[in-house]
Design a protein that fits this description.
mainly alpha; 3-stranded antiparallel β-sheet; two-stranded antiparallel sheet; 11 helices; about 45% helix
Length: about 270
């Protein structure tokens, strides 16, 4: 049996969607027109979008459409009428539906908390395509390359010394260079306490796990304007913005992109127009 563990595939959907207590005008209309069938179509459509990869329903393929209709489980005429109505009301994106795709932007926005801890932005529409990005793709890519180097070569910029015990002070500094976003001295204290006979690979595994799961992270300070507002950057168009308080990071930019804090010691990149 291989000692290498296969990681869990990255989640590209959500296991639930928020059933809000208020009745939307669209739900009230469909329920009034079609009774329980209208109610079923409305909510099962939301459920199917939520559990689809990147929350996109693609109906270009015959079997994809059959799977979709089987899940909705309502008469074809009612399903088609309900979808046309939701397109008219822009609950379903009209441009995407013209490409036989169902994309519900307001629903996706409500699913933000599910994506927040994945180090990924909400899936976003670009033309008639849906794009899913990491919050900080450059850092994630550097970490991936770094980890591959360690796993493939059995070493890194740190001298492994044939898995001998590591020297504390000098090695801490070198680990800090490899994991700049972590509080390495704090993490090393924990490692030494729990595993006094640690090896180089133990430290790498520990710090990689801590970085992936948000443990032992350095406290980041968000940049502020002279008037005290928080600086933010749109993950879609790259424009910068200023927010009155941190709650503003839960809103969308005017282009529909997700807003990310700009932290101290992080270079701002502003799109030129």
């Amino acid at each position: 049996m291989s000692k290498n563990k296969v990681g869990r595939p990255e989640a590209r959907n959500c296991a639930y969607f928020p059933h809000h207590t208020e009745i939307t005008p669209e739900l009230k209309y469909l329920e009034g027109q079609y009774g329980a069938e209208g109610y079923r179509v409305y909510y099962r459509l939301h459920e199917f979008c939520t559990t689809s990869n990147d929350h996109l329903i693609n109906l270009n393929n015959k079997y994809d459409e059959l799977t979709f209709r089987n899940y909705i489980n309502a008469p074809k005429e009612i399903v088609d009428d309900a979808i046309e109505y939701l397109v008219y009301r822009e609950v379903i994106d009209p441009e995407m539906y013209g490409q036989k795709k169902i994309w519900m932007p307001n629903l996706v926005t409500k699913l933000r908390p599910c994506w927040k801890d994945r180090e990924r932005c909400l899936p976003q529409k670009e033309g008639t395509e849906i794009i899913s990005r990491y919050r900080n793709s450059d850092r994630i890519e550097k970490n991936r390359i770094k980890q591959n180097k360690i796993e493939l070569n059995g070493s890194s910029t740190i001298n492994d010394n044939s898995n001998s015990l590591l020297t504390a002070v000098r090695k801490d500094d070198e680990y800090q260079q490899l994991f700049p976003d972590l509080d390495v001295p704090k993490a090393m204290k924990r490692i030494r306490l729990e595993n006094p006979d640690y090896k180089h690979k133990d430290v790498i595994n520990w710090l990689t796990h801590a970085e992936k799961n948000g443990f032992s992270s350095k406290k980041k300070e968000i940049k502020r304007t002279k008037s005290g507002m928080y600086k933010a950057k749109c993950m879609k168009c790259g424009d910068t913005d200023s927010l009155q308080d941190k709650r503003g990071f839960n809103t969308m930019h005017h282009c529909g992109g997700e807003l990310e804090p700009i932290y101290e010691n992080k270079k701002e990149v502003i799109n030129e127009k």
